[in-house]
Specification:
- The protein is of the alpha+beta class and 170 residues long.
- It contains 4 helices and 6 strands; from the N terminus they run βββαββαβαα.
- The strands form 2 sheets. The protein has a 4-stranded antiparallel beta sheet with strand order 4-5-1-6, sandwiched between helices. The protein has a two-stranded antiparallel ribbon with strand order 2-3.
- Helix 1 crosses helix 2.
- The radius of gyration is 16 Å and the shape is globular.
- The N terminus is likely disordered.
Length: 170
Amino acid sequence: MHAKHERHSLRLKGYDYSQTGAYFVTIACDQHRCLFGSIQDTQMQCNHLGKLIEQHWLSLPEHFPFIALDQYVVMPNHFHAILWLNPKHPHPNTETFGKPTKNSLPTIIRSFKAGVTRESRTQFANAELKIWQRNYWEKVIRDENELNHIRQYIQNNPLKWQLDKLYWAQ
């Protein structure tokens, strides 16, 4: 008999992901495939899909005017970014499966991933193209020191690509 796989949230239990603050997000490519480009001479060289990801990320404030984008990097098989939420009309709630909370981090990331997937499937004429891993990893940034450390980590990510656990996962 097989054990039933139960899906569980990676989010902090009871945390309101629509509240004002900074969040560090990592979104991995499906099966850690290097679909977004490659590292050459310690610099990320985005291919068409990598550039599409960057375009969608940079357009997020047009759709969610209460957010601000900070440091980010597209890597060969994942994406790191810092996102600031400053909702004018927060919707305090804990998001539950099937009941998204308006203006929350999960709603923004879901929208971003869906937009990239939808446009790439159209551009590549492949309705089955799977780009993203099912979930994403996030960290609530608690203070200025942590913020600066994460900014440095993102900035240096291409330099340290061969040391990255996602490099070895490919």
